[in-house]
Amino acid sequence: MNLSQLPAIAVLSDNVTIVQHGEVKIVRVMHDKAVAGISLLGGHVVSYQPTGQEDLIWMSKAAIFDGEKALRGGIPVCWPWFGRIANPAHGFARSKEWELVEHRENEHGVIVELALFPSEDTLSIWPHLFDLRLVMEVGDELKVTLKVRNIDDHAWTFSGALHTYLNISEITQMQATGMGAEYIDGLQDNKVCQGGDTLELTAGIDRVYTQPEAVIKVEDKVLDRTLHITNSGHNSAVLWNPWIEVATDMADMENDGYKTMFCVESTIHAPTIDDGITLQPNETHELSTIISA
Ligand code: TA6
């Protein structure tokens, strides 16, 4: 995504500016190490481009910036649940307006922190008090951390994901490793399957890998670069590509958009809304992903 062409509406420091895209405000980071953007809608990373590299993050050319719908591409924050186990799909955090609470910078990069707090609307969907922070650390690598804190007087349970869309040259020229063997196949009625050490695609997939290695690697044979994804605080890695049939049905993805994206997600997967990670009052959990080339 070309952040440099978007009009600035506020300059916050040498490296941090707020820019406008349609109805969406984006915190733009421009540093010697990298350019990156995080949308206040959804606390959603939309770009991370280390100096001299193609963007590591894919954004749909047909993404809708109406300020209401979650953006297609980037790193959607799925919370307080992952998937379609309740409504709305993937929770409400990705379509809510977050607040910018802090930014700091030095020669190594820039750190931006956003926050999401409960509102009448979130309480009507999910009746619990929370303090949610999204910390984006931009430098030689990108680290995104979702800090989930229970500020209620009772325990509650959540699931979720950092649903990263990686930017790749051509899906059929991609090879993934490190996702582990066992997966739950969303395209086969959630059947538990065993896969191989490497994954190359000739059709769509929607899989929850339950025993991923510390680092998942995605080799882009056209660009001759390998993306490294290091997750923590997760219980699985979801790998997804919709392929042409599903992409054609999506209003916010071009028909051939699936060719240049591959999702590798840092996921807390749960079968129902009552499962996942339980936090007692004042407890915190951190879910993170580190992405580098
Ligand atoms: O993470 C994979 C997945 O849950 C798929 O099942 C697919 O539907 C995708 O996320 C996108 O979901 P969305 O609600 O953004 O259309």
Automatic annotation (TrEMBL):
It is an enzyme of class 5 (isomerase). GO terms for biological process: carbohydrate metabolic process. InterPro entries: Aldose_1/G6P_1-epimerase, G6P_1-epimerase, Gal_mutarotase_sf_dom, GH-type_carb-bd. Keywords: Isomerase. SUPFAM superfamilies: Galactose mutarotase-like. One of its GO terms (molecular function) is carbohydrate binding. Pfam families: Aldose_epim. It catalyses: alpha-D-glucose 6-phosphate = beta-D-glucose 6-phosphate. Its EC number is 5.1.3.15. The active site is at residues 163, 265. Belongs to the glucose-6-phosphate 1-epimerase family. This is Putative glucose-6-phosphate 1-epimerase. It comes from Vibrio scophthalmi LMG 19158. The lineage of its organism: Bacteria, Pseudomonadati, Pseudomonadota, Gammaproteobacteria, Vibrionales.
